[in-house]
Design brief:
- The chain is an alpha+beta fold.
- It is built from 7 helices and 4 strands.
- It has one domain: Nucleoside diphosphate kinase-like domain (Alpha-Beta Plaits).
- Strands 2-3-1-4 form a 4-stranded antiparallel β-sheet, with helices on both faces.
- Helix 3 packs across helix 4.
- The two termini are 17 Å apart.
- Bound molecules: adenosine-3',5'-cyclic-monophosphate.
- The site of adenosine-3',5'-cyclic-monophosphate (CMP) has 8 residues, from loops.
- Its cofactor is Mg(2+).
- It comes from Belliella buryatensis.
- Its EC number is 2.7.4.6.
Length: 139
């Protein structure tokens, strides 16, 4: 069924001027952008977004990195959106990402890995609601 996922173009990719090329890959893969904004997270908001990782050794670094510069946040729609988007972006660590994936092409490191993609339908809804109010996601 047609459903949705949530993505962020992270500070490394945004700062490098790769947002347009990444968005082109996303659209060419059949995803429709149904909500999108450029914004910048505070360390506190980044910490809240990634709260599930708060016991991980990389959490403090991740919060600093994700608040280090502007990002794009977007809700995407496609059949099988969550799974298909994770295939399009590739593995978390660009060293492990398949050829032709967004992270293989654009990621700088396991942390500065160009894009985020939700890992479940439930988290896609939670994450989309974190950034977009009801009137911003009616498309
Ligand atoms: P993301 O898919 O957004 O979800 C959690 C993020 O934490 C991940 O992408 C990376 O940016 C970061 N991350 C995950 N694992 C590591 C790690 N081992 N070291 C540093 N950062 C990580």
């Amino acid at each position: 069924a047609t459903n949705r996922t949530f993505t962020m173009i992270k500070p490394d990719a945004f700062g490098a001027g790769n947002s347009g090329a990444i968005l082109k890959m996303i659209e060419d893969a059949g995803f429709k952008v149904v909500a999108m904004k450029a914004t910048k997270l505070t360390p506190e908001l980044a910490g809240k977004f990634y709260e599930v990782h708060k016991e991980r050794p990389f959490y403090a670094d991740l919060c600093a990195y994700m608040s280090s510069g502007p990002i794009f946040a977007a809700i995407l729609e496609k059949d099988n959106a969550v799974e298909d988007f994770r295939k399009l972006i590739g593995a978390t660590n660009p060293a492990d990402a398949a050829e032709g994936t967004i992270r293989k092409i654009f990621a700088k490191s396991i942390e500065a890995n160009a894009v985020h993609g939700s890992d479940s339908d439930e988290n896609a809804t939670i994450e989309g609601n974190f950034f977009f109010n009801q009137a911003e996601r009616v498309l």
